[in-house]
Design goal:
43% helix, single chain, MDM2, two-stranded antiparallel ribbon
Length: 91
């Protein structure tokens, strides 16, 4: 049986609208989850928020602390869980 090309998961491609806290970081346009992650990382890198010693940690500025539920530092893995609470699918 020949393996076909992997199909992208449609759930990741549906546009998501950010709440005001997340919109302050990535903008208020509805974008897919993959794009939300890309924009978050662009913001983190642009502002030098990745921890210098432990590169897996993100040090939040005022905007990110609001998204991180008040936490000043979160791990990459924790970040995706916290950010997922700040957007919902566009109907």
């Amino acid at each position: 049986m020949a393996k076909g090309k992997r199909k992208p998961n449609a759930a990741f491609m549906t546009p998501q609208s950010p709440d005001p806290a997340l919109a302050a970081v990535i903008g208020d346009k509805a974008v897919p989850r993959t794009e939300i992650t890309k924009k978050l990382w662009a913001y983190i890198k642009k502002n030098g928020l990745q921890d210098k010693k432990n590169r897996r940690n993100i040090n939040g500025d005022d905007k990110l602390v609001a998204v991180f539920g008040g936490k000043k530092t979160v791990s990459m893995f924790e970040m995706t869980k916290l950010v997922s609470k700040h957007f919902k699918a566009v109907k």
